Automatic annotation (TrEMBL):
PANTHER family: NITRATE/NITRITE SENSOR PROTEIN NARX-RELATED, NITRATE_NITRITE SENSOR PROTEIN NARQ. Pfam families: DUF7134, HisKA_3. The lineage of its organism: Bacteria, Bacillati, Actinomycetota, Actinomycetes, Streptosporangiales. SUPFAM superfamilies: ATPase domain of HSP90 chaperone/DNA topoisomerase II/histidine kinase. This is histidine kinase. It catalyses: ATP + protein L-histidine = ADP + protein N-phospho-L-histidine. It comes from Streptosporangium lutulentum.
Length: 385
């Protein structure tokens, strides 16, 4: 805690001044009533000088209460010692007991309370009242002191409860903020992964056909027109996919259209129209769920995109097989590239993102080169019944 925080904590507010004034008046009135009772009695309990000293001690005890917030235990101990022979300081002593119970740990409060009881025994022995039973006066003092300490302990525990609730609310707010940041981070990762999966496939088609036009300037008009049509359709579809992905930032959860397992045939058909030799073999028994089908679609999409980028002209085999409870197996395998890959065919983060996607689905993913010089991408996904 810095110096300004300590200064603001020790500074009394209006409520503190009112409370301190009230306690001071309580102690003063207690002393005045005690003095009036002594003056109204048939005889003073002790010599006149002791009565005068008692009044002086009572006034000093009331004045000392303005220090109760800074040193409550020390003040309580001094007033307890004085209360062993001074009756008019009892009001100030009760206020000090209450302050210790409110501001200090219960263990300290118990010790101070026991000392106050011993002071009560000492007062009953040193200054007995001829008109009252010492035992009765002692029990009355015990009852009053117990009530004051009990009230102070109640306020102490209530304050601790309020502080714990404030602390719990602050921690909950901090945790909510951290969860919001994590959710934003996960959302950004999901959007980045989705943009890579969707746009990588489309842009690779554009790259293949644009490269064909660049390296075959003498192609026939029919070939040029066919390639230009594919480029135009792929660019248009890429823009559509980009709008759908960015729509995640505006649309509520669940409104973004997602591919299904049935779209795998369309994905293979697009690659075939782009000039790839793709052989799709499907042995699926049953209807694939949306979540499993979406993950399977992304696996095939990533495999075709990588084959198009890193193995141009190579034949690609896509095999999908499975059944409920047995799981769904997806394999995308391409032969050795017929021509050298282009210079822009660098390794990206597609397989990393795909591994995360498969891990979220509790599946397995394997990939690596084959003995024939090609590349194999294999995955297994759980398929609940």
């Amino acid at each position: 805690m810095n110096r300004s925080a300590i200064t603001s904590a020790n500074r009394r507010g209006l409520r503190d001044w009112l409370v301190d004034t009230g306690f001071f008046l309580f102690a003063a009135v207690f002393g005045v009533l005690t003095a009036a009772e002594r003056l109204g009695a048939s005889s003073l309990a002790g010599p006149q000088w002791l009565f005068n000293l008692d009044q002086i001690i009572g006034v000093l005890g009331c004045v000392a209460l303005w220090l109760r917030r800074r040193r409550p235990v020390e003040l309580a101990l001094v007033l307890i010692v004085l209360s062993a022979f001074s009756e008019m300081v009892a009001g100030a002593m009760l206020v000090a007991l209450f302050t210790v119970a409110v501001r200090r740990p219960p263990r300290t409060t118990v010790v101070v309370f026991v000392l106050s009881l011993l002071a009560g025994v000492a007062y009953a022995m040193l200054r007995p009242d001829p008109d009252e039973s010492p035992l009765l006066l002692f029990l009355l003092g015990v009852a009053i002191q117990s009530a004051v300490v009990g009230w102070g302990l109640f306020i102490h525990h209530r304050r601790r409860l309020v502080l714990s609730l404030y602390d719990r609310a602050a921690r909950a707010e901090t945790e909510a903020h951290l969860r919001a940041e994590q959710a934003q981070h996960h959302a950004r990762e999901a959007i980045a992964r989705e943009m890579h999966d969707v746009l990588g496939h489309r842009l690779s088609l554009l790259s293949v056909h644009a490269g064909a036009l660049e390296y075959h300037p003498g192609a026939s008009a029919e070939d040029i027109a066919r390639s230009a049509k594919v480029i135009r359709e792929s660019a248009h579809q890429a823009l559509q996919d980009l709008r759908e992905v960015i729509g995640v930032l505006r649309a509520p959860v669940g409104e973004l259209p997602q591919p299904t397992f049935a779209d795998v045939h369309q994905l293979v058909a697009e690659s075939s129209r782009a000039g790839m030799r793709v052989d799709l073999r499907e042995e699926v028994a049953g209807t694939v769920t949306d979540q499993v089908g979406r993950t399977a679609y992304r696996i095939v999409q990533e495999g075709l995109t990588n084959a198009r980028k890193h193995a141009p002209g190579a034949e690609v085999r896509v095999q999908v097989a499975g059944a409920p409870e047995r799981g769904l197996t997806i394999e995308v395998c391409n032969a050795a590239p017929a021509v050298s890959p282009t210079s822009d065919a660098r390794s990206g983060q597609g397989l990393v993102g795909l591994a995360e996607r498969v891990a979220l689905a509790d599946g397995r993913l394997e990939h690596g080169p084959t003995a024939a010089g090609g590349w194999r991408l294999w995955s297994w996904l759980p398929w609940p019944p």
